[in-house]
Amino acid sequence: MARTVYAQFCAGETPTEVRHCIQGIKHLGYSGVILGYARELVIDESEISALGKGTGPANEIKLQEDILAWRDGTIATVKLAGEGDFVAIKFTGAGQGAVQQLLRKQRPSPDFEQAIVEICDTAADRGVRLLIDAEQQAVQPAIDAWTIEFSRRYNAGSNRRALIYGTYQAYLRSTPCTLAKHLAIAQSEGFVLGVKLVRGAYLGTEPRHLIWDTKESTDRTYNAIAESLIRQRYSEVLREPEKGPKSFPEVNLVLASHNRASVQRALEVQKEQDWQNQHQIEMVYAQLYGMADDISCELVERGARARTMEGGPVEIPKAYKALIWGTVGECTKYLLRRGEENRDAALRTADTHKAMMKEFKRRIRLGR
Predict the structure, then answer these.
(1) Do residues 212 and 221 touch, judged by C-beta distance below 8 A?
(2) Whole-angstrom Cα distance, residue 143 to residue 165?
(3) SS3 content of the chain, % helix, strand, coil (to 5)
(4) What is the DSSP letter of 348?
(5) Range of 158's domain?
(6) Torsion angle of alpha carbons 52, 57, 58, 64, nearest 10°?
(7) What CA–CA distance (Å, rounded) separates 113 from 115?
(8) Per-residue pLDDT at 232 exceeds 90
(9) Average confidence score pLDDT of the chain
(10) Considering only CA atoms, which of 139, 235, 131 is closest in space to residue 179?
(11) Across residues 215-219, what is the average pLDDT?
């Protein structure tokens, strides 16, 4: 496994291996990476019930050790990332005590909050941004609340750049409403809202009624939200709030997608804004390491061409690769989830084949 699946999708087991991997990615022309620490806790319904009722483990020493291990691993990840990179954070990685607090919709305990603050302060000092991962819906409401709270603290200021990003899953029926509420809070309270937009990663474990009935519905929701955020205006999908400010706040966006149509549409909107000299949001494109390389490489090539052009407005897309590090055992749950959410990979085979043939012909013409 270490030589096949793990090597394809993960950055490495040691800091030295991770640094080498990141250097290789940036050498190819990527603007940066989204690096994650593999420690996480994926729980089933029986575990959710037990922890929610408080019948799970209550060893205070063990709970404290879990928080410290999570803090140290995350800070080590922040220190592996470079300025302008992102680090992905999973609150459930801090152990069962953290999960209990999330399930009960409590504030983080003092020890847990201090650990989060230390991570945020380290990231701010290094110019690294933090992506708070979406997780299972049993814990997501509390994750959203915590993310907004830390956004208030770290996303305000004159530089108009987010340190904290929340993750919004388009396959959830509730996402447009949730995001609209968060946009209104950011506008009312004067901070930048950091948004990572994804289609969704827990299709196999979430209650089915929470998710759109069809992939087409998810695609429509994803594309409509993306366009609203890029254009900085509400729409029929992402509706303006009934109460509160109607104007759109400052948004920083990570458009995380393996869908060619979604990426192309976003590029078209950015290009249109360029030529009309419209304000553009801070935005990057992201694909997983080891996946959708045809889309990622096109973004890299497009960015390289844009940097060499003179005269006239030219949008320069910023391409990022998302990857995790940790032992093979620590990364197993991540790898299983990647397989689950990419069951439709066969549907992309035709597009990938066309992209590979196009690149092959291009290299032939250049005599490479």
Answers:
(1) yes
(2) 12
(3) 55, 15, 35
(4) G
(5) 5-366
(6) -100
(7) 5
(8) yes
(9) 88
(10) 235
(11) 96
User: Does 349 score more than 70 pLDDT?
Assistant: no
Q: Which two tokens stand for residue 76?
A: 């080590």
Residue 52 above 90 pLDDT? no
State the Cα torsion 9-320-117-77 to the nearest 10°.
40
What is the rounded CA–CA span in Å between residue 330 and residue 207?
Answer: 26
Measured distance CA(157)–CA(215) in Å, rounded: 39
Identify the CA nearest to 330 among candidates 6, 107, 60, 4. Answer: 6
- 156 and 191 Cβ atoms separated by less than 8 Å: yes
Q: Any residues with CB less than 8 A from the CB of 187 and at least 6 apart, and which? A: 244, 245, 247, 248, 249
- At residue 363, does pLDDT exceed 70? no
**What secondary structure does DSSP assign to 126-184, as a single string?**
HT-EEEE----TTTHHHHHHHHHHHHHHHS-STT---SEEEEEETTBTTHHHHHHHHHH
For residue 255, the cross-strand partners are: 197, 285
**Angle 353-348-327 from CA coordinates, rounded to 5°:** 100
Asked if residues 154 and 163 have their Cβ atoms less than 8 Å apart, the reply is yes
- Spatial CA neighbour of 331 closest among 36, 24, 134, 69: 36
Tally the residues of the chain: 368
Domain count, the chain: 1
Q: Which residue has the higher pLDDT, 348 or 159?
A: 159
Are the CB atoms for 82 and 30 separated by under 8 Å? no
Q: What is the pLDDT of residues 287-301, one digit of tens each?
A: 999 999 999 999 999
CATH number at residue 10: 3.20.20.220
For 14-56, the three-class secondary structure string (H helix, E strand, C coil) is: CHHHHHHHHHHHHHCCCCEEEEEECCCCCCCHHHHHHHHCCCC
Residue 62's pLDDT is what?
86
User: Position 256: which residue type?
Assistant: A
How high is the pLDDT of residue 367?
63
